[in-house]
Amino acid sequence: MVDLLVVLPYLGVFAYLVARDQGMGDRAVDTARRRDEAFRRSVRDAVATSPTDGDDLAKLDALRASGVIDAAEFERMRTRVTT
Description:
mainly alpha
């Protein structure tokens, strides 16, 4: 009787795993695919919104042209952007 109480839960778990194995695998693949697509989408969005060196240099040039920064400060900031 004690053996039955010990073995029966394991048989139930084994039967569940055999019966539901394919469904669990499919759900795991779907979850991984959704996470991968979400990650790729977030990377594409981050890259698309990141300013480039050209954008930064254009902003610096506009600041210099409007007189907000002088030529020496422009050169110092330009070397920071390009390195």
